[in-house]
Amino acid sequence: xKIPTTDSIALGGVQRELERQLEERLAVLEELxxxxxxxxxxxxxxxxxxxxxxxxxxxxxxxxxAAGTYGLCTRCGRxxxxxxxxxxxxxxxxIECQSHAEAA
Length: 104
Ligand SMILES: [Zn+2]
Known about the structure:
- By secondary structure, the protein is mostly helical.
- It is built from four helices and no strands.
- The radius of gyration is 16 Å and the shape is globular.
- The mean pLDDT is 90.
- The site of zinc ion has 8 residues, from helix 4.
- This is Zinc finger DksA/TraR C4-type domain-containing protein.
- Keywords: Metal-binding, Zinc, Zinc-finger.
């Protein structure tokens, strides 16, 4: 299934980039795993926590590519600006929705 608004985005390239980032972060996470406890190494713990969040977001973005909804805001359903997706390929919400979420 294809949605016209995502036609301009090179989805194949995006998917490869997301998969690359996912692999990279999983590798880092695996390396940090033995130390990633607040009592052992708080920095590693923090780092691995943020990697886990990103991995969840990247996985969700890959699922959206598979579902044909990639590039659409998961909150309002409007297309996410291409410039935003370039910077943050796994962005789930448009800038307006994201700023509301952060302000809340
Ligand atoms: Zn939105």
